[in-house]
Prior knowledge:
Elements lengths: L1 H22 L8 E9 L2 H7 L8 H7 L1 E9 L5 H10 L3 H4 L5 E4 L4 E4 L18 H9 L5 E5 L2 H4 L10 E4 L6 E2 L11 H8 L2 H5 L3 E2 L9 H5 L12 E2 L10 H4 L2 H17 L9 E7 L14 H24 L5 E9 L14 E4 H16 L5 E5 L2 E4 L1 H6 L4 H12 L5 E6 H6 L5 H9 L8 E5 L3 E4 L5 E3 L4 E10 L5 E3 L3 E2 L3 H9 L18
Parallel strand pairs: 1-10, 1-11, 2-20, 2-21, 5-6, 5-10, 12-17
Antiparallel strand pairs: 2-19, 3-4, 6-7, 8-9, 11-19, 13-14, 14-16, 15-16, 17-18
Helix pairs in contact: 12-13, 14-16
Amino acid sequence: MIKIFSLTFILIFSGLSGGLAQKHIPSSRPKMVLFLMLDELSSEQLFIIRDKLSDGGFNKLISGGAYFRSAEYPSGSHFDGTYVSTLYTGSYPSTHGIISDKWFEQFKDKSIYAISDDTGRISAKKILASGIADELRRVYGDSAKIAAVGFSPGKLIWSLGNDVTNAFWFDKKTGDFISPRDTSVHKLPDWINEFNGKNIADMYSERQWGPLLDITEYHKFTFFRNQLKDNYTFLFELDKSKGKEPYAPVAGSPFGNKLVRDFAQSLIVNEKFGNDNIPDILTINFITSSPLSSGNDHFDPVDEDLLLRLDLEIKGLLKYIDKEIGLENVLIVTSGITTPGKYVSSQQKYDKGIFNGKKAAALLNLYLMAIHGQGKWVKTYYDGQFYMNHDLLEKSNLSINKIEQEAAAFLEQISGIAYALPASDVIAASMNLPAMQNLKLIYHPKRSGDILIALAPGWREELPDGRLVSRKWVEERVPLIFYGWKITRQLHNEPVEMTDVAPSICSFLQISYPNGCEGKALPDLTR
């Protein structure tokens, strides 16, 4: 009797052990690819605050995954969508065509906006290369579920490829999550209306945001204490503001990230992401820098606190996904879109100056008028590119090449401009010079201007809306982490191209590379 009982117990235990082991066997390919797309993030930040992070968030991803400390985008645009497009297509702006959030089209004599179609509706039709999502749909159609959740359509739609209907972003005007599909033809699913009906943003608008930890342990206090008042702290009221965007304070706080995480989790369960053998793709965009911070300080305590609290949101998200799908079945790709500006208040030696493109265009026009007579020789300036007036040049019988050379020579005399190159010189530029290579990779012959500039290291640019943006000298270098599924633990200090992410994902999903892909699949990521 004892032997029979023992044998029965062994068989039952073996069955249970087999079931538990089976649960942790990865699927043959990822059931879901999850992109954690962070607005501004550097490996430097992660290193500095790592001891304060939880074990289940960033530290879990870094210690358990393949961590590339320096993944590179070619710099040159202030538009986040340019970098997102590069990530998902595996191609450079010179190929995918999203050189900025807008550009000037000579034949139509007007500015063209990247994220809208001719009717003004949000669209990704301006992108000239396919992305991961397009290639997945080509094989599985609508059976492959693809969505993106975050704060701005300008960042989200490029992850979705040709069909942007499943982009969902937090609307600062209404406090709801909205989408391009919210029309009389394509209504939002009931679960989204129910989520919005809870009015969670109103609840958060009654909250306060103060430090999560002892603020004297934050990096700014440790190394730049003399720049802070002895009694420095912060406590923000998140009341609905007056004006067009009453929920902007909530969106710019840790509660904004919490809302995005909660919505994404609702989407996973209601839309059944990762529930079958057809791969799905979900992109979640989180903020890592708050408009409530100083805005020009790499180590602002407000932004450090936001990052610490985001770590807890990621921890909760990973636990939820493990419960619903199993982390062994999900490939998680984490990266920054750009890196934060490296400016610390009162350390002006790092801040060389501020460049204003509109003023530079006005000076250039005055110079050309002094040589060639009255007229609007410079049509417009935008995002590092000067567009000349081709109609006026034709009427004046002047060579565009001659004017470009004159203009470039003048622009290089303006403080802050390191290089000014005519488009023809950009095309012929030597690829051995990193700054020239960078300009070449962001130049598109049908969309770029007649003269491209590179600002000297340490210079920032003032945008028309008053914002100051940092222009990296050569590349944007961001952290890149692969985690989950069959990914092995590894650390890479050597640079890697962000164009390599898309072909790597496609190889895991066993689908074709995007049609303009210029990267290559990263080797030895999986066991």
